[in-house]
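Problem: given the chain below (290 residues), write out its structure.
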Amino acid sequence: MAERFGCDLAIPSKTGMGNVLMYTRLVEDLSRRLGRPLTLLSGPMRTAAGRVEDEEPYPVWGENPHVGGIIDPSDRHAEDLLQIEVEQDNLCQFGHLIENLAFHYDVRPSALRPSLFLSRAECMGAMERLRDLPRPLICLHPYGTSSPLPGHGWHLDNWRMLIERIAPLGSLFEVGLDSIEHKNLGLPRFRTRVREMMALVWASDLFIGFDSSVAHIATAFEKPAIVLWEPIRKVEIEERYQQGFGAAAVSRWGYPQNRNLMLLGDRGEEIIDVIEHQARKHLSSVGWRG
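Solution.
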């Protein structure tokens, strides 16, 4: 399909942003192997990410030197784009999704994390937004498609307890989708486009949040990350698309370099204790005393 449109790779656009981020490592590695930027076949991102005015159509690919152009066939070939989404679910599933994608192009991933690029102006803009918050900066994202539903302790109450516990370690701020993701946790928030949100994550010193596209972004920028998983919800969602693979959701979507915490059978404040300990450890490893 990509060859038919004169492109190197066909990439989904209507799935979650995490799905698109999984292709970024393949794009970089294949571009380096071919010795040139790639042309992508993809439509504008149509996920819940674009909730502010003037959202960029291709936020994941901005400033990427390995992308020479993007062809959007959606006006006359919408069915072709839908087929790309279907085909992603037919990939071999022997390992992490980044490895699974690379396998079909005989590529060994150079790193097990997404490949994202920011401009100097974007980085400086994030630093400016955060300048009044004393370092270290702890970025929280208490949201995600597979995050716990209302009634679960980690939907709201445990986040409030966690915030109280780790507030002495640094300045906390929150990222989330406007009008959709808002739990009134009393933390500083910034109205952002997707790439502005990426830059805020880049400018932080530690990430704590649910399995989500923001966790992928933090991993891309090699930020110390504490990622919470609700495995029952994750398996239920995965089984809708790839029957039989739900049990391997964490190994396919998670990253071994992160501290992955399963919300399964925890009692009292056990997980909060672990997060506080891990946060202190991460911050001290990068020079912050807590």
